């Protein structure tokens, strides 16, 4: 199936990434089936899409009259059977292999044979996920950045089994969303997290070793390296638990001790200091 034939997209998972992905597809004119396990997750996801559309209206990026049309393109469901109507699927469930296995095998059973499944995983091997399905050649990584409606990068990741046709369709689909797709091969952390997470980890070591305060570390990177956010501010935004998970994936997948997670990062996660979402990380949030 080529990108032109794709009209209906199913997004599996209505969390932070899932509702953002549903937003950009609906905003680009696609019919979206947004599926999650509980209605409350779906309601929260749709509410977030509404708020993000309001933000786009405020910035003059979207006409007020368009908001209702975009929201009307998003159909909420807890019933996996409804994804049978989809021409393309993006999986955005939590980063746990057992959850992804359950969702992907069920989706694979329901979808038409020609439909491509893309995973938004930020760290799990695409090759491993592709092998869970009966369509490994029609499996690909589509790694969106957070916040999805704002960030223009999509890492399009080839599993070992991904066909050229699947890869080309996914690259073209990303362009149709107004995103800039970048081709990446399957390896731990891909490019984004393989480069970013050791940077965050090293910044945490600077704090732990008393080299500088979090404010000072971030100031150096913002003022000296022209980063819009400092690494520790960014870590708090991403979630320190997520950063720790990715560091563990890098260390396990690449086997190099340079990917060892900073003890301070581990300590903060153990204490429940996860960043913005918990009210405290490297910084305190009111």
How big a fraction of the residues is strand?
A: 5-15%
What's the total count of β strands? 8
Mean pLDDT: 96
State the helical fraction. 40-55%
The neighbouring-strand order within the major sheet is 3-2-1-4-5-6-7-8
Largest sheet: 8 strands, mixed
Quaternary state reads: single chain
- Rg of Cα set: 19 Å
Structural class: alpha/beta
Concise synopsis of the structure shown:
The chain is α/β, with parallel strands linked by helices and 286 residues long. The chain is 46% helix and 14% strand. The longest helix has 20 residues.
Q: How would you characterize the overall build of this protein?
A:
This protein is an alpha/beta fold and 286 residues long. Helix content is 46%, strand content 14%. The chain has an eight-stranded mixed sheet, sandwiched between helices. Helix 7 crosses helix 9, helix 7 (192-208) crosses helix 10 and helix 10 crosses helix 11. The radius of gyration is 19 Å and the shape is globular. It starts with 7 loop residues before the first strand and ends in a 15-residue tail after the last helix.
């Amino acid at each position: 199936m080529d990108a032109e034939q794709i009209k209906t997209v199913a997004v599996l998972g209505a969390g932070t990434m899932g509702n953002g992905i549903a937003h950009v597809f609906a905003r680009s004119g696609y019919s979206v089936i947004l599926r999650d396990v509980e209605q409350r997750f779906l309601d929260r996801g749709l509410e977030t899409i509404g708020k993000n559309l309001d933000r786009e209206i405020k910035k003059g990026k979207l006409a007020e009259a368009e908001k209702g049309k975009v929201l009307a393109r998003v159909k909420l469901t807890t019933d996996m059977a409804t994804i049978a109507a989809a021409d393309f699927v993006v999986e955005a469930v939590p980063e746990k292999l057992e959850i992804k296995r359950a969702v992907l095998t069920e989706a694979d059973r329901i979808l038409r044979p020609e439909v491509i499944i893309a995973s938004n995983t930020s760290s799990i091997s695409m090759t491993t996920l592709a092998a869970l399905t009966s369509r490994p050649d029609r499996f690909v990584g589509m790694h969106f950045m957070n916040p999805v409606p704002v960030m223009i990068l999509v890492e399009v990741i080839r599993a070992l089994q991904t066909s050229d046709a699947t890869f080309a369709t996914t690259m073209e689909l990303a362009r149709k969303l107004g995103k800039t797709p970048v081709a990446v091969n399957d390896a731990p952390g891909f490019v984004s997290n393989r480069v970013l997470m050791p940077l965050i980890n090293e910044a945490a070591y600077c704090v732990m070793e008393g080299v500088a305060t979090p404010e000072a570390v971030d100031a150096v990177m913002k003022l000296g390296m022209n980063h819009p956010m400092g690494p520790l501010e960014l870590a708090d935004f991403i979630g320190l638990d997520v950063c720790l998970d990715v560091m563990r994936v890098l260390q396990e997948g690449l086997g190099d001790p340079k990917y060892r997670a900073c003890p301070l990062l581990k300590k903060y996660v153990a204490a429940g200091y996860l960043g913005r979402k918990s009210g405290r990380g490297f910084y305190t949030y009111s």
